[in-house]
Amino acid sequence: MGQSLLTGPFPRIEGELHCGQVAAEELARRFGTPLYVYNLASIRGRVALFRSAFAEVDHLLAYSVKANGNLMLLHALGTMGCGADITSGGELFRAIRAGIPAERMVFAGVGKTEGEIGYALDERIMAFNVESRSELETIDAVAGERGTRAPFGVRVNPDVLADTPHAYTRTGHADTKFGVPWAEAPELYRWARERPHLDPIGIDVHIGSQIVEPEPYVRAIDRVLSLVSALKADGIELEYLDIGGGYGISYDDRPGMDLGALARDVVPRVRAAGLKLLLEPGRSLVGEAGVLLTRVQYVKHTPTKTFVIVDGGMSELIRPSHYGGYHSVDLVADPSGRDVATVDVVGPICETGDFLALDRSMPMPDAGDLLAVRTVGAYGFAMASNYNGRLRPAEVMVDGDLVSLARRRETFEDLIRGEEEPS
Ligand code: LLP
Predict the structure, then answer these.
(1) How many domains in the chain?
(2) CA torsion sign, 3 to 46 to 292 to 350?
(3) Same domain for 256 and 302
(4) Rounded CA gap, 266 and 260, in Å?
(5) Whose Cα sits closest to atom 22 in ligand 1?
(6) What is the pTM of this model?
(7) Which of 66, 112, 316 to mutate to test the pocket of ligand 1 (most atoms within 8 A of CB)?
(8) Do residues 125 and 179 lie in contact, with contact meaning Cβ atoms separated by under 8 Å?
(9) 270 and 292, same domain (yes or no)
(10) Among 281, 306, 323, residue at a domain's last position
């Protein structure tokens, strides 16, 4: 649901925006801007919400590390009992270093290399979610070299087109690169059963991201469960059903996924099939728990526009320009008494696509004002870059009145680390 102004992770207290109890302006002064701030209490609340919605079925929340891989955040999620959905050796490394047990990790992705497969086998992850026959052959070979067996599920492409806000975040229809074509999956399991180094233990779907209705999940799950029954009849008994992630959140005044409604559809089906349920939420655990604090540098009026030029841009948050993503932009100071104006909030990057909000009606900011870009806990810092020689920002974790620097701001030296310097 949408964030309440009073009880959400970033409430206004006496008119001024806070993270929990801590004033956003105080954080910006202490750590500088642009600055990512996460509210851990809110993330804990989201985990608890999933847990109670799915309490009636044996389940694992395999947090999708790609949404936000910050070590402190991963560690916190690990202590809450979460596992990890990883998509590269780098994410495996992060999740291990954060203390998430490997037996709670699933590894998806269409292009796993031999090196990554070997690393995951050595760490003894729970399972590979396999996206093609040739990948499964490679896993078989790498496991064979190690004299071990690789547990896996097939990521099935259920040919379900889910309605998401952008074509780039739809993954469940037949013409994406993801998953094994529906019709080929049974044969792949049968082939794998004969291989000495493969253990078929699960099945997986992930149909897209920012989906707000249970219906496409139900369609995908029903397809997959019919496959599970057919495999069972063939003597292949699976242990888990992984329904992926993609549960939508509220970026504007439209509600996100109703987890209770989703669970009411999913739980009876998975229980009846006698399977363990895996969920891979990313955005829905951390998205609403993050803001990007950015300071207004200049205000520029042209004959047709008013540009509010801030110190964060597409290098810190690429969602507006890459997906047309909407993020609410709030004045941190008490906005009462300000005139409302229609502005473009833009960054300092040399690209016309460098914007955080276009034609946005908001209380008119002045140079020096602090703005909070909301709902950026997922795919915010994770997609940040050094483009235009930008230093990736600091990340701060707030838990009640406890404030921790989770990642320091980069320095100029960080920018050239690893490069040969001319002598
Ligand atoms: N599982 C798999 C296999 C995935 O590919 C993804 C996301 C997730 C789980 C988690 O999805 P979530 O619950 O966070 O929606 N950068 C885009 C989103 C890309 C999602 C990629 N896969 C954005 O900013 O909207």
Answers:
(1) 2
(2) negative
(3) no
(4) 10
(5) 209
(6) 0.96
(7) 66
(8) no
(9) no
(10) 281
Q: Indicate if 152 and 230 belong to the same structural domain.
A: yes
In testing the pocket of ligand 1, which one of 206, 209, 285, 318 has its CB within 8 Å of the most ligand atoms? 209
CATH number at 327 reads: 2.40.37.10
Domain range for 187: 108-281
Task: Mark whether 235 and 212 lie in a shared domain.
Answer: yes
Residue nearest to atom 8 of ligand 1 (CA): 245
H or E element in which residue 216 lies = helix 215-233
Give the Cβ contact number of residue 299 at 10 Å: 16
pLDDT tens per residue across all 423 residues of the chain:
344 455 689 999 999 999 999 999 999 999 999 999 999 999 999 999 999 999 999 999 999 999 999 999 999 999 999 999 999 999 999 999 999 999 999 999 999 999 999 999 999 999 999 999 999 999 999 999 999 999 999 999 988 888 888 888 887 787 889 999 988 999 999 999 999 999 999 999 999 999 999 999 999 999 999 999 999 999 999 999 999 999 999 999 999 999 999 999 999 999 999 999 999 999 999 999 999 999 999 999 999 999 999 999 999 999 999 999 999 999 999 999 999 999 999 999 999 999 999 999 999 999 999 999 999 999 999 999 999 999 999 999 999 999 999 999 999 999 999 999 998
**Structural domain ending residue among the three candidates 281, 315, 340:** 281
Give, rounded to a whole angstrom, the gap between the first and last alpha carbons of the chain: 57
Task: Tell how far the Cα of 197 is from the centroid of ligand 1, in angstroms.
Answer: 30
Q: Which residues on neighbouring strands pair with residue 399, listed in sequence order? A: 402
> Distance between CA atoms of 108 and 156, rounded to whole angstroms?
11
In this structure, the residue with its CA closest to atom 15 of ligand 1 is 246
